[in-house]
Amino acid sequence: MIYADNAATTKTSPLAQKAMLDAMERFWGNPSSLHTPGQQAKEAMQFAREAVAKAIGAQPREIYFTSGGSEADNQTIVSAARVGAKKGKKHLITTAIEHHAILHTMDQMAKEGFEITLIPVDESGIVKVSDVAAAIREDTALVSVMYANNEIGTIQPVAEIGALCRERGIPFHTDAVQAVGHLPIDVNAQNIDMLSLSGHKFHGPRGVGALYVRRGAPLLTFIQGGAQESGRRAGTENLPAIMGMAAALEDAVDHMEENAAHAIQLRDALIDGLSKIPHSALNGDRTRRLPGNVNFCFEGIEGESLLLLLDDKGIAASSGSACTSGSLDPSHVLLAIGRPHEVAHGSLRLTLDRENTMEDVEAIVKAVTEVVNYLREMSPVWKALQRGERQYVIQ
Ligand SMILES: *Cc1c(COP(=O)(O)O)cnc(C)c1O
User: How do the domains of the chain map onto residue ranges?
Assistant: First the structure.
């Protein structure tokens, strides 16, 4: 099987697995206990916190472990909103291409009386800093812009937006789940106040993530109980997952440059190969995208059948995001970059990383070309296009 769905999840690396076993065998105590096994676990957790902090240029006390990216996103949005509301600020800014962990939380906040501004993106899938500047108001409680998009991989001008928010005194959050471990991040240089990350997007385990919150930035407690995580998240810590995540992140940061160079080489070859398919189009900017991200639309093709036939040929890919495939809604990201409904249904996302090879890329190009041709031969829409009874959306 060629695994080309690394944006959905990555394989837990041997290093991460080893750290998790270590946690279970040697650091099984409760970090809140005062006895020796407890204190050993507490110390191991502190090492993990330092590693996660270091990876993004933060202080260890600014890192709160969570159950993943979704929880981190939820907690930070709700916290900033409610703290803002106490000062009469009931306006929140985000973008049209966020992950549903952000968008659905924003919907929830709208029900609680907040006004939400969704910043659009241009056809290359990138937010304009001037649009964010124009949206900021006296009563803006939070700006949240994702670091890199999970569907089309586009990288947002986070540092510029951070500088703008700093100037206006508005807390700035970024969902960096797709970026951490893949792109260099420095929360101070980039003026980031809050940041979400998730273990399983950089070869750590799933069900664990972290929220970075700059000292003084808003953070309310979601899960009530004990005093874990400085009282911001109760519950006995999932030390195996935390240690696995920290080991995976250290490894990802140590090898970031070579991993990115490798993924970019494969990505660009894959884009070149798939571009040769007639009436195909790359979604998202050609270069301002995650190292391993490729996302294409093919005219006249339905995403689900493409995926199933590729799976038969031994290629694991995805259409849009894992959360939207399985539902019949077109991707909100593809709609945001201006793809019409009929095309937004038929996208293919291939996300490569350090474990993929150039042979994988060649096999993918061959398989996708065959499957697209096969599906088009059977498609009434394609026949109508060819007879000139319909207009091509993708030239
Ligand atoms: C995967 C992902 C999430 C959710 O993270 P989980 O750890 O799976 O909850 C949030 N945002 C983005 C951009 C993601 O890619």
Answer: 14-254, 256-386
